Each structure stands twice: as structure tokens, then as C-alpha cells.
Amino acid sequence: MKAKYLFIIFLILNFGGLAIGRYFMGDEVSGVWYSQLNKAPWTPPGWVFGAAWSLIMLCFSIYLSYLFSIRNSKVVVFVYSLALLLNVLWNYLFFHLHYVSYALINIVLLTIVIIYFFCTFGDEKLYRFKYLLLPYILWLFVAISLNTYVVLYN
């Protein structure tokens, strides 16, 4: 399948995953539980999360469209499905269930999966495209630090 069609499919899947994650959050971001959490001093304002995730999913969709047009295998589908599941699951664990320690484990696993994409599927055909994963990886390290702070100081 051509990369441009795959790009549209991955935009729908990735932003759909964000929407499902947002659904699991419910009103918790503005709710009592989250507002009373001892959050890290470097926690960005709320609008940064939306902007960051929009950029991340745009870059991830571009990367995936080229990856799947070159290497559409069961392994690639599995790794992508795992990343999508972990991304959605974090919201459910953290905001819905308030299982901040399990959410931390979840986000570390997601980071490993995205780094796996970067290291494993970055050969000569995808060498330049793998750098589209850097915003995702960097943001996940920020998210790990924020989640770790919540685990340690609440």
C-alpha cells in the first residue's frame, strides 16, 4: 500500500488512540484527585500536553506510513499494536484507576517499545524517518519523570 494512504490510516488510528485515552481520563484532569496530587514542579501547563501529543502522533504517523510501506510484517504489526495499547492503557491506569505505580511501569514499557522501533526499524531505507520518533521518545522521558514524581511524593 502507498505511504500516503497508510499515513491517513495511521493518523486515524493514532489520534483515535488518543481519543480513547482521553475518554478513559474522563474529567479527572480537572477533578479533585488530580488537582490534589503533588505534581512535579516541572509539570507543563495543560495545553502543552495536547500540543505535544498532536506533534508526536503526526510524526509517528509519518514514520509508520513509511515503515509499513517497506516492512509490513507480523512483527511490525505486533509491535505497533503493543505501542497503541500501552499508550491508551496509561490513561486508564493513571487517571481512571489511580494506579500511578502501574502507570509508571506501563509508560516505561511504552518507551522501550518506541525505542525498539527507533533501533530495529531504522535501517538504510528508514534511516532518516526514524528521527521522527525523537519527539515521542523525548516526551516519554518527560512523562516518566512526571509519573515517577507522583509515585514518589504522593
UniProtKB/TrEMBL annotation:
Keywords: Membrane, Transmembrane, Transmembrane helix
Gene Ontology cellular-component annotations: membrane
Primary residence: membrane
Location of the protein in the cell: Membrane
Residue stretches in coiled coil: none
Pfam families in the record: TspO_MBR (PF03073)
Membrane topology value: Multi-pass membrane protein
GO biological process, one term: tetrapyrrole metabolic process
InterPro entries to which the protein is assigned, alphabetical: TspO/MBR-related_sf (IPR038330), TspO_MBR (IPR004307)
Transmembrane segments: 5-25, 45-68, 75-93, 99-119, 131-152
Domain of life of the source: Bacteria
Annotated family: Belongs to the TspO/BZRP family.
Protein name (Swiss-Prot/TrEMBL): TspO/MBR related protein
Record organism: Winogradskyella arenosi
